[in-house]
Amino acid sequence: MVWRDIYLKTINLAIVAVFLYFISLTIAQSTTVKTIENNEFLEEMQLSTDPSPTTTTELMVTADSARCPLVILSPGFVSTDFGTSAQFRAIVESNNDPALEFRWLRLRSSITEAIDINQPKYSGSKNLPSPELVINNVTFEDEISYQLQVRIVGGWCFGNTVSLDVRGRSNLRAVYDSSEITTSFITVRWTPPYLDPNLVQSYSVSLRGHQDSNYYDSASVHLQTSYMYTFYSSFIPSFDYYLEITSNILLSDPEETFSVKTDPITLHVIVDPQPPGPIDPTASNFHPQTLRLSWSRSQYSSNVYYEYRVTIAGHSYVSSSTSLSPWRELEPGRYYTVQIVAVTNYGTRSPAYSSIIQTLRVPYVTLPRSSYNIPVQSDFEMVASVESFSDFPPTTSTKWQRNGQDININDTRYNGSTEDLVAPKLVINKVDFDNDHRANYRCIATNSEGSWTSGSTRLPQVFRDVYTE
User: Fold this and answer.
1) Looking at domain 364-463, which of 1.10.760.10, 3.40.190.10, 2.60.40.10, 3.40.50.720 is its CATH number?
2) In the chain, which segments carry CATH 2.60.40.10?
3) Are the C-beta atoms of 270 and 346 separated by less than 8 Å?
4) 246, 264 Cβ separation under 8 angstroms
5) pLDDT reported for residue 460
6) What are the residues whose beta carbons fall under 8 Å from the beta carbon of 223, sequence distance 6 or more?
7) Which of 85, 101, 259, 305 has a CB 3.0–4.6 Å from the CB of 345, allowing a cystine?
8) 3-state SS of the chain?
């Protein structure tokens, strides 16, 4: 009798276990699918025992994947502008059981929604094996993932997931108007976006260092007729900062309201860039032909990249360092005003540094012509002019050079040449083709402050055809 009771209890427990397994399997193969219709999310017909008309859940049984058709969606990613359309295409190839019907799904966070393609929002081909989904007049609410379901006799099969990116948030960015920047405050002004400004619920304004991820300050600015915000602090001169203005957009659907931040306006703000330091006379060379200017860096210049724009004698030059050698000659013994401006890599300019320099009082030498055509075996003569003003040190020497090398005027070829201090003369006896053709000659005059080198006179043509023994 005891063994009979144990046997009956075992049978009953087995029946309960089988029943519970069937229930859990049914639940595991069920999911909630909503239908988008008339911009509302209406539940589909409920295939359960719940009689409530407001909660409708479709029992969705997943088919055996081995019998499912091949479902491929393309492209995997679509990026399109706000207000335009996006299109996805599918290919359904049956392996065993034929596809009976299909539906498109929206995958939004933890909610799966079935799309009613009969609504104006959606269009495209409704025919297997190549259904299409066209999403019209896309908005930011459409920026989610999509999937195609195909039903066979054994249940539902799934294709790959595709996604949509909606461009156009830049159209909702605030419009920069102006700013005021000092070492004690930074004020920024802006206006609402040109398109759909009613979507903006507020603005976020923040300030941080260029190489610093931490924000110095941030604030939320609510809707008003004009927009301005001021950051107060002790800002270091020549430091640069990122100033960001972000539009906070309010988007709604039937279930939730959420905020989306647009791409911010990012402004590089340079606080009070300092002028360069003084010209360093010991590191500079004030020779009028080989001028080299050296100056100190702008204060705090290590915080931001600078280039320097130098103006002298009506000409401007650019240097990426704190020195410059202009390629134009200046006049000896003359006073010049030098202006140097520091320019950041964002275009912000410092106040100009100004200084007056005087070039060295060297003698000034000129030649009468820049070139001569001379027959072979003829004699050539040229006289230079040396100018020295009354307040200049006296000229102490002159010399002639050929192709950059000093000439020995005692050589018989140069008989008659002089090293006069006012009008030195060069004589070439019997011009020789090999030595003088295309040769360059110049004169150098020297005093106690330095030397001046004249421009070159060239003999570009020495004619052979007039040569006579």
Assistant:
1) 2.60.40.10
2) 34-167, 169-270, 364-463
3) yes
4) yes
5) 62
6) 200, 201, 202
7) 305
8) CHHHHHHHHHHHHHHHHHHHHHHHHHHHCCCCCEEEECCEEEECCCCCCCCCCCCCCCCCCECCHHHCCEEEEECCEEEEECCCCEEEEEEEECCCCCCCEEEEEEEECCEEEEECCCCCCEECCCCCCCCEEEECCCCHHHCCEEEEEEEECCEEEECCCEEEEEECHHHHCCEEEEEEECCCEEEEEEECCCCCHHHEEEEEEEEEECCCCCEEEEEEEECCCCEEEEEECCCCCCCEEEEEEEEEEEEECCCCEEEEECCCEEEEEECCCCCCCCECCCCCECCCCCCEEEECCCCCHHHCCEEEEEEECCEEEEECCCEECCCCCCCCCCEEEEEEEEEECCCCECCCEEEEEECCCCCEEECCCCEEEEECCCCEEEECEEECCCCCCCCCEEEEEECCEECCCCCHHHCCCCCCCCCCEEEECCCCHHHHCCEEEEEEEEECCEEEECCCEEEEEEECCCCCC
User: How far is residue 15 CA from its own chain's centroid?
Assistant: 71
CATH annotation of 293-358: 2.60.40
10-residue averages of pLDDT along the chain (469 residues): 50 48 39 40 31 41 85 90 87 87 85 87 88 89 90 89 80 82 88 82 83 68 88 82 82 52 65 85 95 86 76 93 92 96 80 94 93 83 91 94 91 90 92 79 95 88 49
Question: Which residues neighbour 128 within 8 Å (Cβ) at sequence distance 6 or greater?
Answer: 92, 99, 102, 150
Which residues are 216's β-sheet partners? Answer: none
CB atoms within 10 A of CB 265: 19
**CATH, range 34-167:** 2.60.40.10
Count other C-beta atoms under 10 Å from residue 45's C-beta: 9
